[in-house]
Amino acid sequence: MFSWIITGFIVLVAKSIRVREWPWRDFLLGRVTCRSAREIANVTGLDAQEVLVYLLSSEARIPLRSRGPYNSIFTFVGDGEGFSIDVQPTVATMVSSGILIVKVMSDNDPVLICLDLRPEAGHRTIDSQRHNLQKQVPHQQNQEIWCLACASPPRDDREAELSFRMRRLRWKKVLGVYDEDCRLVR
């Protein structure tokens, strides 16, 4: 009997020291509440990129408020609150989830844009839903759209990342699909 009391005391102290916000009900039932993509990857043993593929591809079914340094490709962005996207996605992760990166020729230079090809998206440029534009991807040249774009894509094989920002853009022609799968996306 005495050993059970000592064990209970050790568990109580360990829980209070090691885990700040874990409700007792979840603790006793063995449930873990994760607040970031990296935590899910650590708890499940999955690769962090696989977790991002799942979160991106199921975003319409599971509306998740996101935050963090790499949440620009998510539709529902919280203001400092929500699930933390703390893993930097790769181009391969985005393509696997249904977000295609296309290289287009703008007025001056080549630009990379994100096309959302997930079934629930209706083939729009990413983030048009967040800004209430509800606009389909244009098929006519020189039609201005609001989209997630990388205005200065890396020109060589350096370890540069793709930095996407929201901007108004018009393009003249599609140059092709961006296929550097290992490139990191911000």
Distance between the termini: 56 Å
Helix fraction bin: 25-40%
Outline: elongated
**How many beta-strand elements?**
8
SS-based structural class? alpha+beta
Reading the helices and strands in chain order gives: HHHHEEHEEEEEE
Give the amount of beta strand, in percent.
15-25%
Most strands sheet: 6 strands, antiparallel
The number of helices is: 5
Instruction: Detail the poorly predicted runs.
Output: 131-136
> What radius of gyration results from the CA coordinates?
21 Å
- The chain-level mean pLDDT equals 81
Structure explained in plain terms:
With 186 residues, this protein is of the alpha+beta class. Among the domains are: 1-33, no CATH class; 91-177, no CATH class. Helix content is 26%, strand content 21%. The chain has five helices and eight strands, in the order ααααββαββββββ. The longest helix has 17 residues, at 2-18. The termini are far apart.
Give the key terms.
186 residues, alpha+beta, six-stranded antiparallel β-sheet, two-stranded parallel ribbon, 5 helices, 8 strands, 21% strand, signal
